[in-house]
Amino acid sequence: MNLDLLSPTQTRKILEELNHQPRKNLGQNFLIDGNIVSKSLRLAEVQPDDTVIEVGPGLGTLTRGLLSAGARLFAVERDPTLAQWLRDSLGDHPAFHLIEGDACDTPVGTFQHTPGVAYKIVANLPYAISSPWMEAVLQQDVLPSRIVVLVQKETADRMTAEPGSKALGSISIYLEGAYQRLPGHRVQASCFYPIPKVDSALFHLSLKDHPYRYSKACRDAIRLIFTLRRKQVGSSAKKFLPEPAYRTWMEALPDLGTTPQARPETLPFPAWRRLDSILLG
Question: Are residues 196 and 221 in the same domain?
């Protein structure tokens, strides 16, 4: 079933008819550029019968593109007005499965994974939830094979930051273990309504052949250490790690190309994996 994408004029008209003002606290900037929809589908290599997750479908511009491509689509929309609009306009489509709720609580919607079925995530991600939602995705039993999401450019830079960058944080470390970054695409502010005050980017990830997934204990430790990112890692880690693990990790750092005097954002990725192995015993 081919569905026409919503034009900028249609988007504004629908919002007026719904008497709906875009909500800043939910990061509601509606995609109005069909070229970006097409680019998202190409990057994700969406094929007929692919299983795709969409977060924050809004009025359904990207949704229509995904359904027209033949995807089996599971969407999560928090805004009740927009969720009702989607049910009214697309609810009869046999491949469309919508849940109304917080994507951080249900990061893959109602999708239930079955052995042998890969899935992808393609979304114009609400900026306010980018990092917590991504972390929730990384905790799924089965990881998506590909992720193509529209995010704030600053968020994309943070998620793909390398050691030595001030942008590097806990989410950079978690993602590097599991995903390879592929070329994305800069997106102009004029592609959205209302026009955001920040730059955006299509963020493109492909699952590694042997993804590394950090334990909860290590994720929690990394997150806490980065709350004191201006301090030397030896000083900050001592506050959050049990003594035996702390001592063992500090002794291991020189062999990993760093020292306890380094700041967290300068540590090479293998140093964090070594911490994980220590915490796992």
Answer: no
